[in-house]
Request: fold
Amino acid sequence: MKKLFLVLGVFTASFTFAQQKEINVTKDNSWFKAGLTAGLPMGDTADFSSFMLGADVRGQYLVTPHFAIGVASGYNHFFGKDGADDFGLIPLAGFARYYFQTEGVFVGADLGYGFLTNVENNSGGMYINPQIGYHNKKWNIYGFYQHSFTENKVDIQMVGVGATYNIMF
Reply:
């Protein structure tokens, strides 16, 4: 329950911040990002999954020339091993990114909830996804660590790489 309140608090703070600043969405400050991710399960997750392949979709608003906020989702498909079934994770998260320059290194993190699919007695849990990567006007290429603190003390963890294409609107 504490995790749910933390997630709700982050979304409330983001919404409050957005309300205090007049938002003028233009192709220079707002992007839809779509791409692919691939990862290797870690910890207990590596006992029943060998690989993850996923899709990453995001809506981003550049608050300042160096700081962005947005929403993130997608789908992560974990391939089962040793007779274990495949399963999925659908994240729904807010995110923040810091861009050091208009082209170059960035750091960021997603925070939200990860919904599990094809898993009995476990609907999901708090989701975090810190990232470090390289960006330019059209592409983001990044490494990430993803951790979902799911019900029944089953943590879904992985490290991976991703790439997204920026569509300005």
The longest strand covers residues 49-62. The CA atoms of residues 107 and 132 lie 5 Å apart.
